[in-house]
Design goal:
74% of the residues lie in helices and 0% in strands. It has one domain.
Length: 193
């Protein structure tokens, strides 16, 4: 299993971490979007996200002829579908209307920043997916770099969301312990009377 730094940005998890006080269930599993057929994970760069490595390999494979356009589109489309699904979370009425009022300003900033990066990732993926019809080499370069930048930024946002969730969990534990102490003190005082 990869270390936390190497894990794929769990966009839904980042959103859910930031909105954990709203009572959403957390999805602890990562998502594996590549299933053989030309997009195998070779040696990744130090600290590089798996999706970054896979997209770099896909673009290099397409350029070298090791991947057909169909294989390239198939692999990139899987990440595109996951990105679309993550963006659908933002379209849920509760997320758009009710949730911001339930979150702290910092939590709302995390959720909003993640949405920006998801849209940026979608833009990069669109350039990559359009390449077979445009044949514009610049689309491959720009699309890949846009995706890389968005995924790295999303990883940073995910880290910030985990820190925020840990702080929330700590506050909840402290409050629970404080209430337990108060209840024990009240019980003790009552038994002395």
């Amino acid at each position: 299993m990869a270390s936390d730094e190497e894990e794929v940005p769990a966009w839904g998890g980042a959103i859910q971490s930031a909105i954990s006080q709203a009572g959403d269930e957390e999805d602890e599993e990562g998502v594996n979007v590549v299933s053989g057929d030309g997009l195998t994970a070779g040696g990744s760069g130090a600290g590089e996200l798996p999706y970054v490595t896979l997209l770099k390999l896909a673009v290099a494979g397409l350029r070298s002829g090791e991947l057909s356009e169909e294989q390239f589109i198939e692999g990139v489309s899987k990440l595109d579908v996951i990105t679309d699904n993550a963006l659908r979370v933002y379209a849920i009425p509760t997320v758009k209307k009710d949730l911001p009022g339930k979150l702290t300003e910092h939590q709302n900033e995390i959720v909003d920043a993640l949405e920006v990066e998801l849209h940026r990732l979608k833009e990069g993926l669109t350039l990559l997916l359009n390449f077979p019809s445009t044949k514009n080499q610049g689309d491959l370069d720009t699309g890949l770099q846009t995706c890389i930048d968005a995924m790295n930024a999303s990883r940073d946002i995910q880290s910030e969301a985990k820190i925020e969730k840990a702080a929330i969990d700590e506050r909840k534990r402290d409050e629970k312990a404080r209430r337990a102490e108060a209840a024990a003190a009240a019980d003790e005082a009552e038994s002395e009377e």
